[in-house]
Every structure is written in C-alpha cells, then in structure tokens.
Amino acid sequence: MPELPEVETIKQELEQNIIGKKIAKVEVRLPKVINVSKKEFGKRLTGAVIKNVKRRAKVLIIELSNGRSLLVHLKLTGQLIYTESGIENLELRVKKYTHVMFSFSDRSMLLFNDLRQFGYIKIYSAKEICDLPLLKKFGPEPLDRNFTLKIFKNLLSKRRRSKIKPLLMDQNFIAGIGNAYSDEILFYAHVRPERIAKTLTDQEIKKIFDGIKKILPQAIAHKGTSVDTYVDIFGEKGKFVPLLKVYGRGGKPCVVCKTKIKELKIGGRTAHFCPKCQK
What we know:
Elements: H1 4-17, E1 23-28, H2 38-45, E2 50-56, E3 59-64, E4 68-73, E5 78-83, H3 90-93, E6 98-104, E7 109-114, E8 120-125, H4 126-130, H5 133-137, H6 149-157, H7 164-169, H8 179-189, H9 202-221, E9 262-266, E10 269-273
C-alpha cells in the first residue's frame, strides 16, 4: 500500500500540474469506486476548477471551486496518472483497470487506476469532509512541525503494552506510516519490531523519533518506494528501493554487519529486521 511518502509525492505533483484546471468531462467505468451515481458524480464535478490538493495520512483531498471535495484513497494498488497530451496519448495510458477518467478543458487528463479495486474516489461537500470519521480518527502527522519528541513520548506512554512496529503502523497513533517505513525506522533506531513500548529507553525513543523525521523526508525526496504497483502521476517508479536497509530484504545480508535479515510475522504483517543490529 502506498504510504505517506508515496501519497505525498502524488500530492505535490498534482499541486504542480492540476491546480487551476477546469473539469470538462468525467467518465466513470467502474461505479463501485465512487459514492454516488455516475450521472450525479459527473454533474457535481463538470465545470468545477481544481482549487487545492491536500494530504491527510494516506488519503488525498482535492478541493474544488464549487465547495465540494474529492476524497481519494489509493488503498493497495490505486494509481493517479496524469497526461498532458489528452486523446492522442490515451491508448497508451488507459488500462483495463482504469476506472475513472477526468478530462480538463485544456485537454489534459487524470486517470484513476486500481488493479485490485480496493481504492475509491468519493465526492463530499465541505461540511461532509469536516465531519468524516475517517479523517477525524487519524493520529498526528509525523512530519508536522508540531509533532515533537515530547508529543511522541506522551503517545507512547498511553500505549505501553503495544509492540512498537504495529504501533507505528496504527493510523490512530501516527498518520501515514506503513509496513515498509516502520521497518526502516526501527532499523535506523536499532530497535527490534516486536519490542514492547514500555521496554524502550529514552534514547531508543529518541532514535525512533529521529528515524521518523529523517527517513520519511528522504523517501519523499526520492519520490517514494516502488516494490509493487506504485508509480507517481507520470507513471514513473519511486527511487527509494536502493536505499532500503531491511524492508523486502529477508535472507539477504545486513548492509551494516552482513548478518542475514530475518522476517517475522507481527499482527498479520511481515517485519524485516537485523537480529544483530537491532535489540
């Protein structure tokens, strides 16, 4: 699933390429990925101008000039693909799993793809967006300036019995971190993924916090990690994979000590860690 760095990459690229554009036409090819009828979806969107693009956790919010917003969740395999050349390049861009097509007045387009069909694009009014339980339940944004070491320690104190890797992945605890980056953060901090929060020392907590603040921006700078279907809005893969230290490297030598990276199932997810570097 695309995590914070991948969704933030898409958000930044959308900001640069679609803000100010007018929606001329919408084609829905798979109705189940939207929350109203195809006719109503097109009616509410046609003629609206893209006003702003925001991210909350792993969710994108596209604000429109008519007071409505699109909530986009990519889930496991969702993609947003942008093309400037419109119809001429359409055959190269449209896939069997292209479910929604937005045509702008300048003939550029934005396509929503999703191989597994778990993602969605839902339209809401401004009031509805503000009241959405999904957005209200998310924890703090880890890259927000207001997210401090003091706040992180306070959050951990309330979840003392939790294992640290699932805790980092809990969207109610911290927003946006998933399987890949929790592995990388814990390797950076030299902490095993199954450690219980109450056993962490102040130094280890600080290292985890520092890892969050360092690794997520690094991944954004490299436009995310592509180990499956994730691509940016131009169809390009992220370039962070060569910088991964443990995630997806089970059985391979640790980049630091050459010990084999181990895999461990925790809460239904596979954790990757170095048994020597992480304690």
